[in-house]
Write a structure and sequence with these properties.
- There is one protein chain.
- This protein has about 200 residues and is an alpha/beta fold.
- The protein has one domain: Maf protein, CATH 3.90.950.10.
- It is about 30% helix and about 20% strand.
- The protein has helices at about 10-20, 45-60, 95-105, 170-175, 180-195; strands spanning about 1-5, 25-30, 65-75, 115-125, 130-140, 155-160.
- Strand 4 (about 115-125) and strand 5 (about 130-140) form a beta hairpin.
- The longest helix has 18 residues, at about 180-195.
- It starts with a strand and ends with a helix.
- The protein binds inosinic acid.
- The site of inosinic acid (IMP) has 14 residues, from strand 3.
- Inosinic acid binds near residues 72, 86, 87 and 151.
Length: about 200
């Protein structure tokens, strides 16, 4: 079995990754409970920077292949903001309702309300190889929060082709179309390929 350490302490992300990578033959997923690692400051300017920062730092510390991910919302009218500041858009401590209120304020009068969620998954191997996959969910920002499910910006985001916000969808429904789903499943294909090639 090939061991792969998930570079996150977020239980929701661990469960999501475990489910999305379950079909990969020969892969044993490990978490921080088996191999505790230090927190990594997310100081990068892009999702890619932060995903690489986490994967490389934890791989260097623990010496196992590490899969890390970074995600957030990019709003066209705001030139791609809040981007890597998505969690802390309205300051700390992280407060989703306050973030949503600030986003609506910044979009007052905006003609273009298009936005996209972005997820970047980075795989770092101890021999120096790095692999990256991106997933996108395109949509638009509504004028007031709708729905009680999900987290973060979900009550404000209507995916293209849908008439409901992500917060009105079941978790299973959201997970079939989400940015993270695409990033993780693309990474899954890559992992399978690396295992078959004997690189992992
Ligand atoms: P993380 O890197 O996945 O922790 O995401 C950082 C921030 O981006 C979160 O705190 C949310 O504000 C926002 N975000 C990322 N993915 C989602 C999502 O699927 N729905 C709503 N907000 C999200």
């Amino acid at each position: 079995m090939t061991q792969l350490l998930l570079g996150t302490k977020n239980q929701g992300k661990i469960e999501e990754a475990t489910e999305l990578l379950a079909g990969i033959k020969g892969l044993e997923l490990l978490t921080f409970s088996e191999h505790p690692f230090s927190d990594v400051d997310e100081t990068g300017e892009t999702f890619l920077d932060n995903a690489l920062l986490k994967a490389r730092s934890i791989c260097g510390e623990i010496g196992l292949p590490v899969l890390a991910e970074d995600a957030g919302l990019e709003v066209a009218h705001l030139g791609g903001a809040p981007g890597v500041l998505s969690a802390r858009f309205s300051g700390e401590p992280v407060d989703y309702a306050r973030n949503n209120a600030l986003l609506l304020e910044r979009l007052q009068g905006a003609v273009d309300r298009t936005a996209r969620f972005v997820a970047v998954a980075a795989l770092q191997l101890p021999d120096g190889q790095t692999f990256v996959c991106t997933g996108l969910l395109r949509g638009a920002i509504v004028k007031s929060p709708i729905g009680a499910g999900g987290f973060g910006y979900d009550p404000l985001f209507v995916p293209d082709g849908s008439e409901r916000t992500l917060a009105e969808m079941s978790l299973a429904e959201k997970n079939r179309i989400s940015h993270r789903k695409y990033a993780w499943t693309r990474m899954g294909s890559l992992l399978q390929d690396l295992i078959e090639a004997g690189e992992l």
